[in-house]
Amino acid sequence: MAIIKGKAQYAFINEPNVRFEPTYTINLIVDDATANDFASRGHNIKQLDGGPSIVFKRKVDGPNGMKRSAPRLFDLEKNEVEMKVGDGSEVRVQYNEYSGENKYGPYTGLDLQAVQIIDYVAPRSQDGDELLEDMPSEEF
Fold first, then answer.
1. 85, burial (CB in 10 Å: exposed 0-12, middle 13-18, buried 19+)
2. DSSP 33-71
3. DSSP annotation of 21
4. What per-residue string of b and e applies to 118-131 under the rule 16 or more CB within 10 Å gives b?
5. Taking a C-beta distance cutoff of 8 angstroms, is the pair 24, 60 a contact?
6. Which residues are CB-neighbours of 54 under 8 A, at least 6 positions away?
7. Rounded to whole angstroms, how far apart are CA atoms 109 and 63?
8. Strand ranges, E, within the chain
9. What is the distance between the alpha carbons of residues 84 and 107, in angstroms, rounded to a whole number?
10. Is the separation of the CB atoms in 107 and 100 below 8 Å?
11. Adjacent-strand bridge partners of 114
């Protein structure tokens, strides 16, 4: 297990991203030296607007019907929390690096185990979210 610090982008910690295969994930924007180090070990690096990004994942569905638990999410005081992490939040990510080989060749991965929020940025609201909030009747 290891820990790395950076800025969160596209974080799905308490609830999986279900766009394709249900997966807990976070893109972590890091400095060039850190990105190059991970790339040298076979990990893919994405280029985002904020800089190079390392992708940490944990698939929900495992072999033989196994379901993986969500990564743990902590606030600055190490209290476990359930919330959405907004893009640009400063976080620490605990992960497990793995590698192996199968019929397609060698592979590497970064299992997302836990995230600690250091400097929280609220996520952008989704279309219509403000309309769903309770409004005082005198506004109508």
1. buried
2. HHHHHHHHTT--EEEETTEEEEEEEEESB-GGG-BPPPP
3. S
4. eebeebeeeeeeee
5. yes
6. 4, 6, 27, 28, 30, 34, 35, 38, 43, 45, 46, 110
7. 16
8. 2-17, 23-29, 45-48, 51-59, 72-74, 90-102, 105-119
9. 30
10. yes
11. 72, 94
Q: Residue 135 is which amino acid?
A: M
Do the beta carbons of residue 11 and residue 70 sit within 8 Å? no
**Under a CB-based contact definition with an 8 Å cutoff, are residues 111 and 93 in contact?**
no
Six-digit token pair at 99? 């590698």
The token duo for 126 is: 């989704």
Which DSSP helix (H) or strand (E) runs through 132?
Answer: helix 129-132
66-115 residue pLDDT tens: 999 999 999 999 999 999 999 999 999 999 999 999 899 988 999 999 99
pLDDT digits (tens, 9 = 90+) for 6-15: 999 999 999 9
User: What CA–CA distance (Å, rounded) separates 79 from 33?
Assistant: 31
Which residues lie closer than 8 Å to 25 by C-beta, 6 or more apart?
10, 11, 12, 16, 17, 55, 56, 57, 58, 112
Rounded distance between C-alpha atoms, residue 108 and residue 100, angstroms: 7
